[in-house]
Design a protein that fits this description.
2 strands, mainly alpha, about 60% helix
Length: about 325
Amino acid sequence: MNEIGNHGGNSQLETSTVFVFIGSGIAGQPMADHGRNALSKLLASNVQQSSLVSTLALLFGVPIPKNNLGLPLPELLGGYSDRERLHMLQTVSAQIYGLVRANENNAVAVDLQQIIANPAVYAKADCSHIDTAGSQMQCKYEAALAMHRQASSNTDVSNVERAYYEFMELASTHLSRASSGYNLQLMTMGLVLMAATVLGFAVLCQFGGTSLIHFKSRRLAVSLPAVGMWATYLLSTLSSSLIEEEHQFWYFWVQTLLALRLATNGGRYRTLAQMAAFRVVRAWNQTGQFWAGEPDVRQYLNAPENAWLVWVLAVVTLGAINAA
């Protein structure tokens, strides 16, 4: 909800969730305007939702989930000593590097003995020239471990923290894209091919001897509904909710095709029976994002007071099968 009470839109305030942490050692955020426009102030710093997992695991002292890709929020680790904070970052980095090794063939096990023996060599390694993602992430991880090894209680550890975060950010971004990224090039090619197919089909029907509409007989050719159906499906693929509501598209077009057949062909009673049967199927189990909570036939038949109707339908069905 935004600051004037609207919700359901796509603005930052309506699509973001505020992280609020309350506890010992967590510093508050001062508001210069005494709370006015507080949401805007809080949303000035954006964090990934996955960061909540690793941060809470560290604060509560529980193991980090093995598939975690979130980076701990540095604002919440300020109450710990340098040694404790570096140990936390090393723990998260080790867990994330385990995912790197599981997904990248070029990343191998880190030789801790070599890092302990030659920390200066690993700490000064230039990882930017490495081409493969797995080897580059391994290089950054080893550099962070080496800098951690060199750090002492009297030195500034901010560079070590920065090295750990550089590795975690690189690994988290790379693994996230590899597991959930979309191939936009292939998706675009698919949409272009679908559009070319629909256009080509319409052109062939129009200029190949079979027009889209037979005006003289006032009967719709099959080609017109086909072109319309695939054209609207092509437009529907651009909608983010198609994955939840695609069945609604096919419900609409099946009934539309049946209605066109009813208007242009014979077999009126058979077509009406098919439309009625399909409407029952449509209402049998409400699905999708908008209609899942609506009453349906399944719930009606499962109600105890309607058990007699189930028996009647079963007897009628068995009788029809036996007669056939």
